[in-house]
Write the structure tokens for this entry.
Amino acid sequence: MLHTRTTAAERRRAFRTQLASGRLLSMPGAINPLSVRLIQDTGFDAAYLSGAVLAADLGLPDIGLTTSTEIAARAQQHTRVTDLPVLIDADTGFGQPMNAARTVQLMEDAGLAGLHLEDQINPKRCGHLDGKSVAPRAEMVRRIRAAVDARRDPDFLLMARTDARSVEGLDAAIDRAKAYVDAGADAIFPEALAGEAEFETFRKAVDVPLLANLTEFGRTPLLNTRTLENLGFNIALYPVTLLRIAMGAVEDGLRTIAADGTQESLLPHMQTRSRLYELLGYEQYATFDSAVFDFTLPPGT
């Protein structure tokens, strides 16, 4: 009720333990704080906050227009209501290495379990689109080192994302990943790998936890969890899936209301009032309130 029962430090340690277990973690991307409660209630291991989703929530494209403080504030609203570790997309760190350092501390203060920084340059774009540019390797290494130096909680996970596969090729992406690990990255997010063979090659070359981005309509095939686990990956990420499901349903619902003049045919597709109240913990709030006011004031007070 009101907030999670665990501390950020506990969730960070739990995330580290999960990654060290060798078991594949499934990580859906939340679209709002209520959805992260649902992710937890459904039994997932961790939750994710996508930069594309956070930008879309503001009606903006994912091209680096959001700010670190906007993202941190939104993140804190999510971490307040879940006991799951939450990983966030911190884009390029929102500027130069000094900005990346500040971003790390903002995200620590927001209660997150970790973040990932990418090696694109602005204006950045979705990792599965053409026309990307990547920063020089040395510049990204400085970005990572600044993030490592700024970290106050050693359990806060610093993941490096490389978009080099689509720009410079697989071998260059692997070389960059190794350099980023040497600079202090705890894990690697190889963006836009093209198939199982590339996943396997990356796993053999890089000896830290690896994330597989299973975004829809992209360059990467939608591999199932058994395949990813056999390939030795540590995280199966579904960054924008819930947003796409939700917005598709919203658009269909609006068209139905406009055409029919009533929402009655949509009722079977809606979350019920009772389920919503269950997620919100309505009953616990009522119990708490009655427990606080279960006394009688003395006369005259």
Observations:
- The first strand starts at residue 25 and ends at 28.
